[in-house]
Design goal:
Number of strands: 17
Shape: globular
Bound molecules: zinc ion
Order of helices and strands: EEHEEEEEEEEEEHHHEEEEHHEH
Helix content: 10-25%
Strand content: 25-35%
Largest sheet: 6 strands, antiparallel
Radius of gyration: 24 Å
Number of domains: 2
Distance between the termini: 42 Å
Number of helices: 7
Oligomer: single chain
Length: 327
Amino acid sequence: MSKKVIPQEAIPDQGGFTVKIEGKEYLVMNDAMFTFYQRSMGEFSDFFLTLRDERKILGCRCTSCGIVRVPPFALRCPECNFAPTEIMEMADTGTMIATPPITYFANSLFQKQVPFGRGRILLKGADTALSINCYTTRGILVPGLINKGTEMKVIFQDERIGDITDIFCVPAAELTAEQLGKKGLLSSELDWERAVEPQLPDETGENKALFESALGELEALAAELNDCARARQDIADWQRVIQIKATGGSFILQIKGEQLAIKPGVEPHPDFTIVCPDLKVLLDGLGYRGSLTQAIMKRALWISKNSEFTTIFKLERMARSLARSKK
Ligand SMILES: [Zn+2]
């Protein structure tokens, strides 16, 4: 099935809900008002078509002053009495001109991209910077991985539609010389599984006892979450096998059939891995006493795949649903 302009999850269910205002119940119905429109890319058409079809980034150089603009937004140079510019293909490497802010909570339009950095890259040979999303192939994107001046490589999505999100960039240091040298490098050519796990302290009798105690609390909490219809809804149609590694021990957290299951041991091929030096951090997040996202940003919790932030988001929603259902 082709992708739709409005994603399925952004479409509300038929029906409604009630809100209580000053002791009286009011019914609020879900309804729709929509307008689709088409917009021409105009003079930018070549830029987007070349991204989509040739995996190349175009810029333009003024024939008088030589300034190179990317994207090629001035077909005539406003600095040089409208001298003509010439289209040129740009390098696909460059540096960030500022430290990109990272978005963790996006609106529904960008939900599938989180967490992402949004910054401006100065491609080699360019005089203006290009807005671009930034990612890392080494686990979850946290502050400090990509900074002002970090050397980056532009990567192309495998499925391109002629939009600026057809490209994104990753730190050049994460790539091999061959990948760096290849033009039009595709997302599927990157190794997204090369995350380097944070080291945990060795198991001791003391930290093992703390781990076992926190695990017991976590099992009790999971049972509570599984009993809460509203929390179960948050993981509807979601299946994941997550390896959890903490100081003092490891276990498997499985999400399946609207249930959280905690199993002992090590899974050879988990969907992703969570490393939390202190298991209490995970416990507090699921118990709605702390935020898992905040923990990730502060590096108290680490996940092996950036795209699995979606799963963290669902777990946080479960915690919130349970807390609200108790009110
Ligand atoms: Zn000029």
